[in-house]
Amino acid sequence: MILIITSKPDGHIGAVTRHLDAAGAPWVRLNTEDIAQNLDLTIEPALGTGSLHIKDSGRKFNLQDVQAVWYRKPETPQVGHFQLDAGSLDYVQSEFREILDNLYALLPHVPWINNPFHARIAHRKMLQLKVAAKVGFRVPETLVTNSPDAALRFAAKSNCDLAIKSLGALSAAQGTGTQTSYGLFTRRVTRAELLAVKDKIANLSTTFQPFIPKACELRVTCVGDRIFTCRIQARPGDLTADDYRFDTQNLTHTATEAPNLHSRIHDYMREFNLNFACFDFIVPLKGEPVFLEANANGQFAWVENLTGLPIAKAIADELMSHTNPPAHPPAELTAKDIEFLSASLSNEDFRRFCRNRNHARH
To answer: Are 180 and 241 members of one domain?
Structure first.
């Protein structure tokens, strides 16, 4: 049985489960945000066994029957329905998070896409750059600092515009009451712009890199041993030249190949013990692609929808490769089979065969 750990808004699940259903592979979906109201469980930790019942779907399964896990996009358990003070709610929510982490920890022997304890380390972007350089990728010179002087020296040394990035957050909300959300994508800044805000640099460490003019970007998805490469063509002169995420759906996406990256991608995956990751590369005007980052829980559906690359099927195949095939009842013998057997066996052998088969049926 395949366990899928995610949340209700996750639209990627159906693309994979339709392939699991077509193959007859059993699976169960666990949405983590509602486990406080929607999950009954009984676990015996010392034995590594237990039973779980998901109320809304009616699905029940035993922990020991899990053969593979897809850890997709879980969310923090919701506890607002409890009539408790803020401190007590924090405690209850923390306990539910611990319940999930403990369940994950009881399944180290099964294959994951990806084990969350490995993925949490793999999400650290400073470590990503170190590992990328180790396996031989070309990486941008990078400085993370809250020192205005260090940032300005880096800008002078680079002698070009800079790219500024966040280490984690992809979006933020601003305002009170009705809030405005906006993306925190890569932005290009000139040395003059940096100098104008130098006093603010001390407030928060920021990631600085030389801005690299690009011919295009590559979104490379690795699933087990399989690699799918998509070329994303930005529009010169607008924000997509800084970061394609400013207008992803309206950019030209083309399935392509980048075999020169494959061995290093696999080396990178082994370093973090991952079975899935989405890599982002810049293809500069000169030279080989430049590694930017790799997301161990990256989005893939938009790439498949725009290019036809069979990423969802590859994920389903990877999950099923570690599970037992569905059992099929033995085929009934036909009259032709009986005739062939009677001609092939001696009378005593044939009678013994029939007795054994009739006994097995009862």
So the answer is: no
